[in-house]
Write a structure and sequence with these properties.
Structural class: alpha/beta
Number of helices: 5
Strand content: 15-25%
Low-confidence stretches: none
Strand order of the largest sheet: 3-2-1-4-5-6-7
Largest sheet: 7 strands, parallel
Mean pLDDT: 93
Helix content: 25-40%
Shape: globular
Length: 226
């Protein structure tokens, strides 16, 4: 990587995306954040307004950026419902933000990414299934297949692609009325996952010592998987 690596981070205005952006800035990266609202993250950070629900607009948003050493797709939201009450629009919306936006951004940025770069997709522990979350789980599971495929394609260039899958994390998403049908369950360790812990693992995977790890899914869930 260059002496001052550049990362593009989606969903940087709050939650895990903001924590990852802050972590990278602390580690000496330059960060370009893509989100609908602007966070204040200090020196080294630049923001571009972007609507991840409109993937067709994203290539233009990033077309004049300096080459990115890393792409982190953290933007996301959750809608929950049991079978028999599923909303097709919710599935379409989550798939657009979680999967289609990631595909569009990677397609635009990775061809110009320096060899040895990084792609990190934010999945979810629930990608293997959870009651009331079938549609959300499906969109997050799609990231696993997409990311592992990209890892195989990009391995000759030394570009790693991994998925980071948090469990119930202390972010504004937990209070979103759209997921009220499935209130969070406290993990076995007795506390919600700390976004900064997720960011610390992201920082490792995106850093120099992440060069030997690709095509993997890292679950950080406070014991919720036990």
């Amino acid at each position: 990587m260059s002496s001052t690596p550049h990362a593009v981070v989606t969903g940087c205005s709050s939650g895990i995306g903001k924590a990852i952006a802050a972590r990278l800035l602390a580690d000496g990266w330059q960060v370009t954040g893509l989100s609908r609202s602007k966070p204040e993250l200090g020196p080294g950070f630049q923001w571009r307004p972007a609507d991840l629900a409109d993937p067709a607009s994203l290539a233009e948003v990033v077309e004049d950026l300096a080459p990115a050493n890393a792409l982190v797709h953290a933007a996301g939201f959750q809608r929950t419902a049991l079978l028999g009450e599923l909303d097709p629009a919710a599935l379409a919306g989550m798939f657009t933000v979680h999967v289609a936006a990631a595909s569009t951004l990677a397609n635009a940025l990775v061809p110009n990414m320096p060899d040895g770069g990084r792609v990190l997709l934010l999945g979810s522990r629930t990608s293997t299934g959870a009651p009331g979350k079938s549609q959300y789980a499906a969109t997050k599971a799609a990231l696993l297949g997409m990311g592992r495929t990209w890892a195989q394609e990009l391995a000759p260039r030394g570009i790693t692609v991994n998925v980071l899958s948090p469990g119930p994390t202390d972010t504004p998403m937990l209070a979103d009325p759209g997921r009220s049908a499935t209130p969070p369950i406290m993990p076995a360790l007795g506390q919600l996952v700390d976004p900064e812990d997720v960011a610390a693992l992201a920082g490792f995977l995106l850093g120099s010592h992440g060069k030997s790890i690709t095509g993997q899914n890292y679950v950080i869930c406070g014991g919720a998987s036990l």
